[in-house]
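TA notes, week 10

Several of you asked for a full example with nothing omitted. So below is the full record: C-alpha cells for the whole chain, then the designed sequence directly under it. When grading your own attempts, check the secondary structure regions first.
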C-alpha cells in the first residue's frame, strides 16, 4: 500500500525583542551584537529558526528594526530560518515590506518568513500617522498588496486603506516567502487560516482553533502551518532559574499589559509579583523530561506545528543566562523530541 505523506519534523527556534530596560540597561550595540552572536551559535547547536519582534517608541528600546536584524542573521547563518514575529504591517508601506522581504529571501537562499500582525499599541499607530481602529483593513490590504507585489504583475491593487499602483515590483523572489499571520483572537486566527500561509500562535490552545478555521475556509489540513510561540522556561532546575530571572519576566508581562497586548474583556491587570505570573499560568516551569513529553504530545496531536520557539532571554537578562537554557535545550530537549517524533513517523509509515 502507499505510504501516507508525513509532515516535516518541527524546528526549534529563538525569539528576540532586544528589550533593554533602564533598570538593567547595557550599551545597545553590545546587546545587538551579543544577541546576533548567540543566534549564530544556536544554529550550530541545532536550533532551526530565529524570530524577531517589532515595536516603536518604546522606553525600553524594544526592537524597532527587525528586518535589519534579519539581514544580519541571513549573512551569518546558513541553515536556520529567519522570521518576524511579528511585523506590525499597518505601520508600513506594504510595497517596501514586499521589496525588503524579497531581498531577505534572495540573500538568505529562501530562508526568510514574513510574519505580520495587527498590532495593538495606539501610540505606534498615531506616531506613524495611522488610525488604530483601521488595524484590520490595514492588515488585509497589506497582505493583498505584498502577495501581488511578489508576482511581478503590473495589475496593481486597490484596497480599502492602501493601494499598489499598476506597476510591477521588481525583482521578484525566487520562491515567495511564507506570509504568516500572528493572531491570538478567534477573528485573528480565522484571518490567518483564510489569508495566510500559516499562523503564529501565542498559546498552544489556539492550535485546534486554527484547524477548525482552515476547515471552515475549505483549506487542506495537511497544508496548515503552525508556528508556536512558547511561554515556558525549560531548565535542569527551573525553580532556581526562576529565582534568578523572575523579575525580568514580571517586567515583560506587565509591560505587555500596559501596552494593551492582551485582547478581549479578560485582559489581565498588572501582576503584583512574579509568583502571580506563575499562579496565572502565564508562564510555566519545566525540566527536560516534562518539556519533551509535552512537545511530543503536541506535535503528534497537531502535525501542522512546524516550529516551537522560545524567548532567548528576557528583558534585562544577561546573554550568558539565556545561553544556559539554550544549551540545555540543545542537549536535552531537541534531540529527544526529534528522536521520539521520528519513531512515531516511522511507525505511521509502516504498511499494515
Amino acid at each position: 500500500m502507499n505510504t501516507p505523506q508525513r509532515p516535516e519534523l518541527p524546528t526549534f527556534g529563538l525569539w528576540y525583542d532586544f528589550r533593554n530596560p533602564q533598570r538593567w540597561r547595557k550599551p545597545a550595540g553590545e546587546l545587538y551584537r551579543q544577541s546576533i552572536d548567540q543566534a549564530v551559535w544556536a544554529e550550530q547547536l541545532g536550533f532551526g529558526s530565529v524570530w524577531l519582534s517589532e515595536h516603536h517608541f518604546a522606553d525600553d528600546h524594544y526592537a524597532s528594526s527587525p528586518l535589519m536584524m534579519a539581514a544580519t542573521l541571513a549573512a551569518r547563518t546558513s541553515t536556520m530560518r529567519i522570521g518576524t514575529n511579528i511585523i506590525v504591517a499597518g505601520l508600513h508601506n506594504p510595497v517596501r515590506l514586499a521589496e525588503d522581504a524579497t531581498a531577505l529571501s534572495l540573500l538568505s537562499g529562501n530562508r526568510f518568513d514574513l510574519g505580520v500582525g495587527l498590532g495593538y499599541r495606539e501610540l505606534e499607530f498615531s506616531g506613524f500617522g495611522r488610525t488604530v481602529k483601521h488595524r484590520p483593513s490595514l492588515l488585509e490590504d497589506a497582505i493583498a498588496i505584498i502577495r501581488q507585489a511578489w508576482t511581478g504583475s503590473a495589475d496593481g491593487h486597490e484596497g480599502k486603506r492602501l493601494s499598489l499602483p499598476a506597476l510591477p515590483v521588481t525583482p521578484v523572489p525566487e520562491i515567495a516567502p511564507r506570509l504568516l499571520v500572528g493572531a491570538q483572537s478567534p477573528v485573528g486566527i480565522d484571518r490567518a487560516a483564510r489569508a495566510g500561509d500559516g499562523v503564529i500562535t501565542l498559546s498552544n490552545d489556539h492550535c485546534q482553533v486554527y484547524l477548525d478555521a482552515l476547515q471552515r475556509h475549505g483549506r487542506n489540513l495537511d497544508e496548515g502551518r503552525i508556528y508556536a510561540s512558547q511561554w515556558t522556561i525549560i531548565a535542569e532546575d527551573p525553580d532556581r532559574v526562576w529565582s534568578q530571572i523572575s523579575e525580568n519576566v514580571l517586567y515583560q508581562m506587565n509591560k505587555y499589559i500596559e501596552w494593551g497586548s492582551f485582547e478581549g474583556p479578560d485582559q489581565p491587570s498588572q501582576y503584583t509579583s512574579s509568583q502571580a505570573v506563575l499562579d496565572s499560568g502565564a508562564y510555566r516551569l519545566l525540566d527536560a523530561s516534562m518539556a519533551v513529553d509535552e512537545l511530543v504530545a503536541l506535535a503528534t496531536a497537531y502535525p501542522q506545528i512546524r516550529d516551537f520557539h522560545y524567548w532567548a532571554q528576557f528583558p534585562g537578562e544577561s546573554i550568558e543566562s539565556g545561553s544556559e537554557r539554550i544549551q540545555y535545550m540543545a542537549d536535552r530537549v531537541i534531540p529527544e523530541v526529534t528522536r521520539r517524533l521520528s519513531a512515531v513517523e516511522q511507525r505511521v509509515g509502516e504498511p499494515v
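The longest helix spans residues 319-349. Use that as a sanity check on your answer.
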